[in-house]
Amino acid sequence: MAARFVVPVGGDAAEFLHTTLSPNAVPFTPHASDSMDPGVHFARCSSKLRSLRGDSVNLKEELNLLFDQFISENYYQTISPSINFRPEDVCILLRHACALVPQSNEHLVIKFCQLVHHLLNQLKVIVDEPTLHALVSYIVRALSVCSKWTHAEVLLALSTVLYGNGPQCQKHLHGLLGEQGLLLLYSAPSQPDLELRRVALSCMTNICLGIPGQLSVEDKYRNQCYGIFLKALQAPKPHSCDELLYSGALKGLHCCLSGVKWRFGGGEEVGALLATLKRLMFQGTPGLSVEWPSVLYAAPLPQYEGPSTPKPPEPPKEAATPGKASTVRPSLDPPASNDERSSSCSPDTRGKGKKAEVNRGDEGAEEERETMVPLLPKGGGGGGGAAGGGESSTKPPTASLYPAWKRTSSDSEFSDLEGSAQCKLRLYHGRVRQSALHCLLAVVRGVDKRMLYGYWSSFIPDAPMAGPPPLTLLSIVLKDPSPKVRACALQVLSAMLDGSRQFLGVAEDTATPRPSFTPFSLSLAATVRELHRCLTLALLAETSAQTLTQVIKCLAYLVSNAPYQRLRPGLLSPLWRHLRPYVRHRDVNVRVSALTLYGAMVTAQAPLPEVQLLLRQPEGSGGGGSGAGTPQDAALSWRHRDGLSSPSKTPGSHGRSPRLRTPAEQEGAEPGSPWLLELCIQLVTETRDEQSDSEAGGTGAAVASEPSPVRLEALQVRPDKIQMMCITVLLGLTYSENSLVKAAAVRALGVYILFPSLREDVMFVADTANTILMALEDKSPNVRAKAAWSLGNLTDTLIVNIVGTDFQEELSDMLLLKMLQSATRASADKDRVKCNSVRALGNLLHFLRYGQLTRSVFQRPLEEAVRVLVQTVQSEATMKVRWNACYALGNAFRNPALPLDSAPWSSDAFSSLCSVVTSCKNFKVRIKSAAALSVPARRGCYGDVERFIRVWHSLATALENSEETHDFLEYRYCASLRETLLQALMHLLSLSQWEDMPALGAALAGDEGVAIRGHLLRYLRGEGGDRGTAGEGESGTESLSVLQRTEALQQTLAGLRELQVEGEAEGVRRERESGRERVVDYLEDLLKSSAELELALSASAGPSL
């Protein structure tokens, strides 16, 4: 029987309309009493309020009524999407209202503060500067006049007004944050009212909040707020305090750390912050009893030596078949079921807690055996670093980090009220953990990564070891019940791994381990293996699609930075197999991330033999390598290989999703073709209407994961038909409207242009160049960055094609001119584009022939290109950009057709390099500039004597100051810098002519010669010139042996002795002869001293036995 609802009509209680409700009835939506549009309601009430004056009759009653009407209306645009208002109207209204409300009437003051919070919060308005000053002044006066019971509402209004306006309220900051400031008093730990303290922290948070494109608050106030937030987090938690205080302080801390390059003071400031954040990362974790340290200390990385970790005993190997339970558990995974990882139980596991528990342990253990990583007995865990001491749980290792309500499927242990309180507490705890991880992410992004390397052991475990597991980011990834918290932990881990290639490059475990101690390289290798193990477990166990995407992205960062050539093979093969089902996941972001991870594996220090073997394996090989044993396989597959319909279709639907065939089934495919290549080809050629509805954009989103799996080794062995199809598809995708697809396609063309079979094809080079130049003008910065990178690769191939081919004559002059002009324009773009644009300019200036350079149409573009390179070298751009600019100038100097001796721009080019080689703080840029100065092969390229001697003096000065730096880490490049400088000086000596002798002789006979003599002597002896791994490859010049250096100096001496000059005046001739004698005497003395040192060393060594 249908329900009947009586609705009053017309406001008359005596008249009723009887309405029958049915399932098809329109849902009831509450409206304001007058049932008018919120926008109309706001305009009408605002007009009434602005018409009031201070001397109006019944002013208080009118204000009270209007305030109630404003506050009772819901102005959220999600509720009322048609609402239309102007922010200036809201500001005018609030300014007028604050002038009408007397502060002696506390009731109206409270109503007004509620109105301020209500309007600004729901209408998302940031007040203008006049309104800001008026409201802040009114609220500050109210805090000093009104009773204390009103202060919470007043401070809440102040917090709303200050949102995003911190830099604009400079004249109020001293009264709020200065000595005895209001906010300092309310936020002090001695404040008994915790609500006032919490709202005061919120005010400070909104002051520090940074708005993109606007100035930030002054550093002194930001630092003061930072200290208050940190003290609030470090202070003991009051007995009656809930987690909202911690959440507010963490949000404020995040605002302080975000958007600026934070500069920490000395001492233990960083360690204290990290210790606090680590404690809060595990806030509310049940079953955890930990004595948290107040400070984390960085491990001394270069000298890190620790006692060797005993190898855990091997667990008994038991046969495990898919679907059967195993008795071996992952070491970092407590007994937990799949449904414990999600916020709600899935239908197939509800009421089957024990069974789900065993299944999860089985999958983790089975994958462990496949990865060939040593397993542990139950309760084992990953080892912590030296800095993480004292943080292991003191509970038995079998204690789970899951709360009891997640570990049981029995009736609730709480009453309804208690259960509601428990749910609320869990929610607050989850927010605190998430906020702490957000702050840690801001620290990782805002602090120099080299500073944080010493703290890695506090957040990332090394090798598994017996005993209680350490509390690290991976503990959260594997055990936290909230998928949002797990995703945040993965974001932090990804940020730590991003750009860590140099640090992780030290890892090595191929050598035989020493039993006496554990080298740092071996510990770091164990960390990489533990990251692989734990992230693989998370890959298999994760049920949230968003968190799963973060897991795969984190693995991609790991694979991109780990030095697999220095590690024992076997890390990538299991990951390759486990990842395979996820390219067919129903969520498009998971599929994109999976393809990106495959691309990272294929390009990891290519060519890795392990990856080459994996590429050659067919799709069904590897003993279950298809991933059929993964716990989520049935739910993952959006395209079943047996041709079943997509899970997104209803059982009665006749729609069938396309089946991904094996390579042998593909038309035209050869047996043994890489399945990954065939998959990428099929994804980019598949029509849009064949996509599943859940793809959110279809092919475009899948291709957006940079098609890097189609790599050098794979494509070059393909038949011509498949090669042509790949090229045609990519050229077509560069016209896609999706910027992600276009960027990925342009980048793939930049990879293809490096293939030997394609780079010599003039037509393909021309087509690719035109496509890249078009993408270089795209409005998307990402597309332009990829296009610049591809243009750099394309111009690299031009240099390769110079020798032994007619390629230079066959390539169109107009195309080269377009490339030169486009690269010059792109050099004014952002640094991501600029760094590769200047590289392309250097290659183009090297490639151009004499006939092209002398054409009038090339003259102005040539001058503009060189001027751009000179400006970039001298600019304050990033190190990478300036390094590439120095490289580009050196590359241009290699072109013998360039008129370096007569061109007006050549003086600026040499001057910029001379300035950088002596003054740049970054030694890698100095090395590259010194290498560029040593490139010209003829004396005439250096211009007149004045320019030649200026280059000499710059190199000599840079050699004298080669050990002066403010950054200790730059000392790694000292040896490489000295060797490059000395080679450049010897090169100048070998090219010097008769007219250079007076200036050179005076330089060598003076203080400059004395200063560089020791360096030259060590250079000839081969002492202190070992570049090592840090400086290897930076200069671009080969390191000569001792014999080669001595022979080169002897040839220089012989050339100087043979110099002859005719037709010069007697005085000039005598001056030059004197200069030559000084230079020759200096070099002869250098050779003599080197020989004497050799004899002395030989005599001291004694006869050999």
From TrEMBL:
<feature type="compositionally biased region" description="Basic and acidic residues">
    <location>
        <begin position="349"/>
        <end position="363"/>
    </location>
</feature>
<keyword id="KW-0677">Repeat</keyword>
<feature type="region of interest" description="Disordered">
    <location>
        <begin position="306"/>
        <end position="399"/>
    </location>
</feature>
<dbReference type="InterPro" id="IPR000357">
    <property type="entry name" value="HEAT"/>
</dbReference>
<feature type="domain" description="DUF4042">
    <location>
        <begin position="431"/>
        <end position="611"/>
    </location>
</feature>
<dbReference type="InterPro" id="IPR052107">
    <property type="entry name" value="HEAT6"/>
</dbReference>
<protein>
    <recommendedName>
        <fullName>HEAT repeat-containing protein 6</fullName>
    </recommendedName>
</protein>
<dbReference type="Pfam" id="PF02985">
    <property type="entry name" value="HEAT"/>
</dbReference>
<dbReference type="InterPro" id="IPR016024">
    <property type="entry name" value="ARM-type_fold"/>
</dbReference>
<dbReference type="InterPro" id="IPR011989">
    <property type="entry name" value="ARM-like"/>
</dbReference>
<dbReference type="InterPro" id="IPR025283">
    <property type="entry name" value="DUF4042"/>
</dbReference>
<dbReference type="Pfam" id="PF13251">
    <property type="entry name" value="DUF4042"/>
</dbReference>
<feature type="region of interest" description="Disordered">
    <location>
        <begin position="616"/>
        <end position="671"/>
    </location>
</feature>
<feature type="compositionally biased region" description="Gly residues">
    <location>
        <begin position="378"/>
        <end position="391"/>
    </location>
</feature>
